[in-house]
Amino acid sequence: MFFRATQVYSVKSDFALFVSTGLNLGLLGLDTHSLKVLIDAGKDKQKKAAKVVLPLRKRGNLLLCTLLLSNVLVNAVLAVISARLFGDGIGTLIATALITLFGEIIPQAICNRYGLYVGAVATPAVWICLICLLPITLPLALCLNFLLGEEIGTVYSRSELKQLLDYHSTLPSKTSDFTAPEVKMLSSAIDFQAKTVSMVMTQLKDVFMMSIDSVLDTRTMCQLMETGHSRIPVYSGARTNIVGIIVVKDLIILSPEHAIPLRNLMGIIGRTPIETHSDERLTELMNTFKSGQAHIAVVKDVVVDPDGDADPQYVLRGIVTMEDVIEALLNTEIADETDKVELDDMGMVHYNAIERTRHEDLRQLAFAHRRSDFNLTHAQAKATAAFLRDTYPDLFGPNQFSATPLESFVRSGMVVDTKKLTVAGCQRLSENHTTVTRLDLSEMTDDPESIAADVELYTLGKPNCHFTIVLQGEVNVRFGRDGFVAALKPWNVLGLEAIEGTESTFEPTFTARTNGAVQYVTFTRSTYLRYRDMMDDAIADVGVDVSLVGDE
């Protein structure tokens, strides 16, 4: 009877040892912060278990003393029972084996994996032990609280939290909900407090600005459109002297044809820029932007004279926008629908194909009102057609063209008025006069005080496929290597060899340049042949005797 009772107590002791040792790891291994997180954001089963365990786990040192004391008592009882059953020597070995296997390895392995759920199931029994052992454990717990202080729990530093996020991103998708892009943004947000304005600002040399002396004409409006910026700094005199910020949407009610000076509008639409310094934290600048004062700031730093002879001065370093700050927060480049998002081999940015087409269409629309300046009037077209037909009947007579197709051919020419071209436009025509067949409308100007730059129409010995009619002004022609110069007045033709011969190009024996304001019209050999062939096809279709074809 005694032996059976001893066996029963031995089994119970093993179970008690199993539970007390496992809970020592299972409960104390749970962090109070982790339990609170599970209660707020865990799964339903985790929430329920965490709510049961948390009140007990908050009594950290008291729980520790209770579990350790229970563990010691169970170990002592098991050793005594083993000695009575098997003797001192064998009993000690058996007790050691039981404690190692059932008191350490198995319970700790289970509770290490399922500590939360085991702890939730065993919590009522632990409360009973805690109350029963309170006279012994309470003084010990109070002493530990006094010596060690309050239990804080696990708190991660910024670098530790970043590393934890990085680790989560490497886990399988079934285990972790975080992806690499999400971890990248979260890590950037953690580092955001340490980032300064100097890390994200645009250097002064790269900032698009407008002079306060600018005129808001069509060209300026198109330039603003092409930049894609919503806010533009305005400077007076030097670029380092920013006097205000304009919001592009404020200009929508203005008519480019009025060409209003920007200076006249600064008092109405100009905004005072906010100032920051390169060492300011982005968190502080973000708060400023959030207040609604502005979405762009100028960056100024104090520069001290090393010799101490001059007073410290503020020096403009660049600008920083809300978009720059948000990009730093997300650690990514934000490309909107107007950004230049393509890089060439040299690292230069360009509009992508869609944006290039869109901007070209908008530019053409913006300059549509100027097309009449670069087209022949009806009277000019008829006069030019009559001039060609009467002066060069072998090339433009009835055998080649009827009156109406000849006028259509004349209208197809590229009309150039150097008075209404910018210097850049004139320069482009001079450098590429053998290939340019269409004007870039953005190179035109409305400025009545514009001074026409000279355009080189032909270069000695340089192949050309154009022939040109001077409509207004004067063209200087330098012949041969002797340099004999002649001034061609209106209704003179240059480069007729382009359509007379059989070759696609000819080599001029002269150099021709415009002199002052000149209007001329130029045609290519291919255009001439195309219109002439159209005439031949039409005559062949209707069977008309070309000798009878005359003026309308």
From TrEMBL:
- Entry keywords, A to Z: CBS domain, Membrane, Repeat, Transmembrane, Transmembrane helix
Against InterPro entries, the record matches this protein to: ACDP, CBS_dom, CBS_dom_sf, cNMP-bd_dom_sf, CNNM, Ion_transp-like_CBS
Q: Any keyword Repeat? A: yes
Key word Transmembrane present in the record? Answer: yes
Protein localization: Membrane
- One Pfam match, given by its short name, reads CNNM
Chief subcellular location equals membrane
Task: Give all residue intervals belonging to the CNNM transmembrane domain.
Answer: 1-182
Domain CBS spans what residues? 269-337
| Topological type in the membrane | Multi-pass membrane protein
Where are the bilayer-spanning segments?
A: 60-83, 89-107, 114-138
A GO cellular component annotation here is: membrane
Record-level GO BP terms: magnesium ion homeostasis
User: What protein is this chain from?
Assistant: DUF21-domain-containing protein
